[in-house]
């Protein structure tokens, strides 16, 4: 039996600001619908990913506090290019931090303070 991770809830305070931010990161906007007057479903997917994000909080979904998501990983094949993409799109990102010779990280936060790690693992 497969158990697939399909969606991660990201708690935000301003849905429109968050859509704009995550599109600058490079996520594709899959859905932006309002099935009821008090609920808005916004789903975005990172390029190449089988897992998407859905906004919680301001969208009427979930009760997580904005900014409470910490340490979610995005995996890339070129950490330097990923960092440069973030910087080129006006997103503050940490310097590349190598853990030995094979694993590197770059960190960034969304406007609410949800934190993300971008990771590259080099095969030996």
Structure, described:
With 124 residues, this protein is of the alpha/beta class. It has a single domain, classed as 2,3-Dihydroxybiphenyl 1,2-Dioxygenase, domain 1. Helices cover 17% and strands 40% of the residues. It contains 2 helices and 8 strands. The strands form 2 sheets. Strands 1-4-3-2 form a 4-stranded mixed β-sheet, covered by helices on one side. A 4-stranded mixed β-sheet has the order 5-8-7-6, covered by helices on one side. Strand 6 and strand 7 form a beta hairpin. The longest helix has 11 residues, at 15-25. It starts with 6 loop residues before the first strand and ends with a strand.
What is the secondary structure topology, with strand pairs?
Elements: E1 7-12, H1 15-25, E2 28-36, E3 39-45, E4 52-57, E5 72-75, H2 79-88, E6 97-99, E7 103-109, E8 115-121
Parallel strand pairs: 1-4, 5-8
Antiparallel strand pairs: 2-3, 3-4, 6-7, 7-8
Descriptive terms for the model:
2,3-Dihydroxybiphenyl 1,2-Dioxygenase, domain 1, 8 strands
- Determine the number of helices (DSSP H or I, runs of at least 4 residues): 2
Q: What amount of the residues lies in strands?
A: 35-45%
Helix content: 10-25%
CA-based shape: globular
Main sheet: strands, sense, barrel: 4 strands, mixed
Secondary-structure-derived class: alpha/beta
Average of pLDDT: 94
Order of secondary-structure elements:
EHEEEEHEEE
Assembly state (oligomeric): single chain
How many strands appear in the DSSP assignment?
Answer: 8
Q: What is the CATH architecture assignment?
A: Roll
Q: If strands are numbered along the chain, what order do they take across the biggest sheet?
A: 1-4-3-2
Straight-line N-to-C gap? 31 Å
- CATH top level is Alpha Beta
The number of distinct structural domains comes to 1
CATH superfamily: 2,3-Dihydroxybiphenyl 1,2-Dioxygenase, domain 1
